[in-house]
Amino acid sequence: xxxxxxxxxxxxxxxxxxxxxxxxxxxxxxxxxxxxxxxxxxxxxxxxxxxxxxxxxxxxxxxxxxxxxxxxxxxxxxxxxxxxxxxxxxxxxxxxxxxxxxxxxxxxxxxxxxxxxxxxxxxxxxxxxxxxxxxxxxxxxxxxxxxxxxxxxxxxxxxxxxxxxxxxxxxxxxxxxxxxxxxxxxxxxxxxxxxxxxxxxxxxxxxxxxxxxxxxxxxxxxxxxxxxxxxxxxxxxxxxxxxxxxxxxxxxxxxxxxxxxxxxxxxxxxxxxxxxxxxxxxxxxxxxxxxxxxxxxxxxxxxxxxxxxxxxxxxxxxxxxxxxxxxxxxxxxxxxxxxxxxxxxxxxxxxxxxxxxxxxxxxxxxxxxxxxxxxxxxxxxxxxxxxxxxxxxxxxxxx
Length: 399
Known about the structure:
Elements: E1 2-8, E2 13-19, E3 24-32, E4 37-45, E5 51-59, H1 63-74, E6 88-95, E7 106-107, H2 110-118, H3 127-140, E8 146-150, H4 160-163, H5 169-173, H6 184-198, E9 206-212, E10 216-222, E11 225-229, H7 251-259, H8 264-273, H9 276-281, H10 287-295, H11 299-323, E12 328-332, H12 333-338, H13 340-347, H14 359-364, E13 378-381, H15 386-398
Parallel strand pairs: 1-6, 6-8, 9-12, 12-13
Antiparallel strand pairs: 1-2, 2-3, 3-4, 4-5, 7-8, 9-10, 10-11
Helix pairs in contact: 1-3, 6-15, 10-11, 11-13
């Protein structure tokens, strides 16, 4: 079974085509700046591991024209990976918010699409864009069933003590105000990979997974299930991120509206798009830029890095306490996989938890193990593969 996985944004989309017989990646790509002069990058993978790259610029008015062009690449004599589009038997879509309604992957139809759209107030930047990918896929590849896989799915195992906020009961029962959690496909994938590497059943392990990218979340995985996570009702809660503030005193919202005459939209916009390490540093949301600025003596950039590392350490420690131990700490995603300095700042002083970092291994970045040989618990770097999780769900659901 060959499956196309789509992660659709408001002006971009990422894609992969996988052959699920051996879980082999055939091609992947990214289309950016849809609605203007768009950039298309397409990569084709050979059985020997070689990668060929095709880059192209074209004006795509909408996602439809962009996917039509990508679909032609799938069957191209040089860049293609299938002889006919009919070989693509399913399309998996990343959907960010499933609320309490969607706790498992499902085939998308009109009723499902409407319910996902109804959840848009909980993820206004994501759910409408994710659904746009589904609408376009129906037009371009009408023969293939579409499957929704939700970021919130893995966290549906959270116990009430972890997902309930200390708010009046009716706000939960009538409005669904609770912690949902996100990055679920990533946390699930690296937790399973860690169990395989440790050669232990997932049910026997207490893991802490750190998905660190422009959006960052930490999850406590006990016995193979998510039991707590830092993102909450929306992806805004949790640790400071690239442009998101993470946890703040909620009274700040009313204070800013009163003192600065800001609207609720302006406040939430600032918290989502102008805060985090960007807001503290005034430099960038990209950690590479922050390190360069900090090394050049920019104190605000260094403070942004310090705030992020400090908050991450707190979360790791609290989740070890919540689970009664930690067999392995796992770093993944762009920062987690590539930023050895940040890993050291977060994990370099966790010996009291039984996690002892090996500085040389961490700097070498060869992974997966970056803990010392005498560390009771392991510290791992595991590249995430959310698309494979989505494709697996499609294959399981469709047989």
